[in-house]
Write a sequence for this structure.
């Protein structure tokens, strides 16, 4: 009964457990279903909300973009019209020049694409020519006749030219270019005479042939000193007289080959004088109609191409024409029209005004038929040769001559006419200044951007490490001195002693082989007698041959050769390999110092060994040590013979070398049977020599080890030991003199001589050439120079702008 009760209780308990599990599972399933439904609903609401608000924001963004674009366009056109009306109202165009307005106006791509605005621009331009021309002329007349501000204007122009010269020093400076005055004209137009009249000196070559074959970049610098001279910066010539200037220009022009005839490589000339304004000119070869028979057929087209290259924006064109030639046929005006169709940056110069009637001259200068915005200036620049014969500036004489001529005719009293070299100078100063100023603001921004890029490049590539040519050269010399120091540390008395002992030991072995080892009686020691005069003389002769060998010159020459070889190795290392001049200095300095000390060292060594030429004393201790050393020398020589024979066998083959040796020994000439060449026979003979020498050395080594060579008394039996001791004595006494007289002197003088060659006596041209041989260093220094020039140019531009504002304010 108890058993049944237990089973029922267990069964009931299990039923209860099963029921509770079912209830639990049911509850969990319902809860999971509800949570999934809630999750899906929430996800739909969240995604929907994101899409809804995102769409509203995107739509709002598009509306704002459209409003902004519409407002910008509306404001642009309103501001543009206001600006145009204000310009017309205040007559700003006449003050800043149409070419400034045009360049600024056309920079906007919107104006280029808008036909309405482009048409409006053309109307404004035409209105300027028709309405404001007379007012502009009146302003120019006032400017030209107003001398109160000349000094201030000259200072401003000088500042601009100084900025231009700084920018010209920057390599690849096309984007920084400031305007120059480019002089063009036919060969007979008189453009060279115009330039000489402006300067007041004759300096350009003369001749019937084409004498201007290269562009001449002429910079005039007004000075307060009375001296007048020129400089050729590319040639390094300073303070050149005007006679010499003419000769140098002629030589540079005629250096162009006859096949090329003209070159686009410019001649740069700076002229300093108190009688010139601060101006920059580029004088170009004159246009030709047809080429002569000795000129290239393509010369005419090449001159046109060269001139067209220089008369591009922003340069000012000085178109020189002759008054006795119709302006319709003026080559200069025709060329300028191609690049400057509106005549905005062209000034006409009419020469030879005295060759036409005043009426004709007046009509040309009025510029009604071929109008130029900058107008025409009439000059009489061609004078008699006597004007230039005097060694003085003739600017005042030229001015006086022109005034006398033009004052005789009432036609030239009209304010519409400009004439005279002095008037031309003033116009050019003002035109060049205006042109430079209007380009300056744009260039200022370009320079700032370029400076940022260069600074970044220096920081990234070189970690802003400042390096100059002098610093690089000093570092290079320091590296060279360090390598020299290492050589000296590893090469001293002990190394010299080992080298000398090896060479003298070899000389001693050669004497032994020649005088002893071929003598068969030496191998029969039992028949040798101590009192035998033969062996005594033989040893004395050998010692004399060794001591009188010319030890001084031998060891000095050997040491000199070793030092020269080591210094040559140093010069071939990577740091110096790219610098031929530095390598040359190392070698020459080494040779000069060693050559200087050579004879003195030879003499001292020879004096030191002189006692050994007559008598050499050897005690028992020296003999014992010499005996041990001689054994080592013989063993070393035996090993060398064995190594050489083994290498010979490996090269030819042991069997073949054996056959050749047998044929040579037996005296048979049957070399054809084993196909022996002459070189193989020579190698066989060499093998026989090595084996014989090895046998002799082994025999002598055994004898030196024997009891008969134990005492110095038996020195005639053992010449190997005695000669080894002699070598030791010669080396010991030579080394100190070699060290003091030669090596130590070299160690002392070489660094100092190197400083003189590569530091103190090095010219700036040589230094620059050496530095430029290392591309990476050249690149770094060029970047540093560029950065310095850009910073200097920025400072100059800022100073100029400030001076300009103060001048305008006053």
């Amino acid at each position: 009964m108890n058993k049944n009760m237990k089973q029922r209780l267990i069964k009931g308990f299990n039923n209860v457990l099963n029921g509770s599990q079912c209830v639990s599972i049911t509850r969990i399933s319902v809860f999971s279903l509800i949570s999934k439904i809630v999750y899906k609903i929430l996800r739909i609401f969240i995604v929907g909300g994101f899409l809804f608000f995102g769409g509203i924001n995107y739509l709002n963004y598009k509306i704002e973009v459209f409003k902004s674009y519409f407002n910008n366009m509306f404001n642009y056109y309103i501001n543009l019209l206001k600006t145009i009306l204000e310009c017309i109202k205040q007559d700003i165009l006449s003050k800043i020049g149409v070419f400034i307005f045009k360049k600024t106006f056309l920079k906007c791509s919107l104006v280029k694409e808008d036909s309405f605005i482009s048409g409006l621009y053309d109307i404004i331009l035409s209105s300027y020519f028709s309405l404001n021309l007379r007012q502009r002329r009146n302003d120019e007349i006032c400017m030209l006749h107003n001398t109160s501000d000349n000094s201030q204007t000259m200072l401003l122009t000088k500042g601009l030219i100084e900025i231009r010269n700084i920018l010209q020093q920057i390599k690849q400076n096309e984007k920084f270019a400031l305007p120059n005055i480019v002089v063009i004209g036919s060969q007979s137009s008189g453009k060279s005479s115009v330039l000489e009249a402006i300067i007041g000196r004759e300096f350009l070559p003369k001749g019937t042939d084409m004498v201007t074959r290269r562009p001449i970049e002429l910079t005039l610098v007004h000075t307060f000193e009375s001296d007048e001279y020129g400089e050729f910066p590319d040639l390094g010539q300073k303070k050149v007289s005007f006679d010499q200037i003419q000769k140098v220009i002629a030589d540079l022009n005629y250096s162009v080959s006859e096949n090329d005839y003209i070159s686009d490589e410019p001649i740069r000339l700076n002229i300093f004088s108190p009688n010139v304004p601060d101006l920059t000119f580029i004088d170009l070869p004159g246009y030709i109609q047809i080429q002569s028979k000795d000129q290239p057929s393509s010369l005419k087209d090449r001159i046109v191409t060269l001139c067209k290259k220089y008369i591009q924006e922003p340069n000012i064109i000085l178109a020189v024409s002759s008054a006795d030639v119709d302006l319709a046929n003026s080559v200069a005006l025709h060329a300028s029209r191609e690049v400057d169709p509106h005549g905005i940056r062209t000034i006409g110069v009419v020469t030879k005004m005295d060759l036409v009637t005043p009426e004709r001259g007046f009509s040309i200068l009025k510029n009604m038929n071929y109008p130029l915005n900058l107008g025409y200036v009439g000059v009489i620049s061609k004078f008699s040769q006597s004007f230039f014969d005097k060694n003085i500036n003739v600017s005042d004489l030229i001015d006086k001559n022109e005034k006398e001529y033009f004052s005789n005719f009432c036609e030239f009293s009209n304010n519409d006419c400009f004439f005279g070299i002095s008037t031309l100078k003033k116009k050019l100063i003002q035109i060049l200044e205006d042109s430079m100023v209007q380009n300056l603001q744009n260039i200022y921004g370009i320079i700032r951007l370029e400076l940022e890029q260069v600074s970044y490049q220096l920081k990234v590539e070189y970690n802003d490490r400042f390096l100059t040519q002098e610093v690089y050269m000093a570092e290079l010399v320091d590296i060279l001195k360090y390598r020299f120091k290492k050589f000296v540390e590893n090469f001293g008395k002990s190394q010299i002693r080992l080298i000398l002992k090896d060479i003298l030991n070899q000389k001693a072995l050669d004497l032994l082989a020649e005088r002893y080892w071929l003598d068969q009686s030496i191998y029969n020691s039992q028949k040798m007698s101590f009192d035998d005069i033969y062996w005594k003389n033989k040893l004395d002769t050998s010692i004399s041959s060794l001591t009188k060998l010319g030890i001084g010159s031998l060891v000095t020459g050997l040491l000199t050769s070793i030092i020269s070889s080591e210094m040559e190795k140093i010069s071939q290392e990577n740091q110096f390999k790219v610098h031929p001049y530095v390598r040359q200095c190392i070698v020459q300095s080494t040779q000069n110092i060693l050559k200087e000390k050579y004879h003195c060292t030879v003499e001292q060594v020879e004096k030191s060994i002189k006692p050994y030429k007559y008598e050499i004393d050897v005690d028992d201790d020296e003999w014992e040590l010499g005996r041990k050393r001689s054994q080592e020398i013989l063993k070393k020589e035996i090993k060398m013979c064995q190594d050489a024979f083994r290498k010979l066998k490996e090269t030819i083959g042991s069997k073949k070398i054996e056959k050749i040796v047998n044929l040579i020994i037996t005296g048979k000439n049957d070399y054809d049977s084993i196909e022996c060449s002459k070189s193989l026979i020579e190698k066989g003979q060499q093998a026989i020599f090595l084996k014989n020498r090895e046998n002799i050395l082994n025999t002598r080594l055994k004898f030196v080890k024997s009891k008969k060579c134990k005492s110095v008394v038996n020195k005639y039996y053992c010449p190997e030991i005695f000669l080894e001791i002699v070598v030791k004595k010669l080396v010991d006494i030579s080394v100190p003199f070699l060290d003091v007289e030669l090596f130590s002197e070299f160690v002392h003088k070489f660094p100092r001589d190197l400083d003189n060659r590569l530091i103190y006596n090095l010219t700036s041209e040589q230094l620059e050439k050496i530095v430029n041989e290392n591309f990476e260093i050249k690149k770094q220094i060029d970047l540093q120079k560029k950065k310095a020039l850009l910073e200097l140019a920025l400072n100059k531009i800022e100073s100029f702008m400030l001076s300009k504002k103060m001048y305008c304010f006053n």
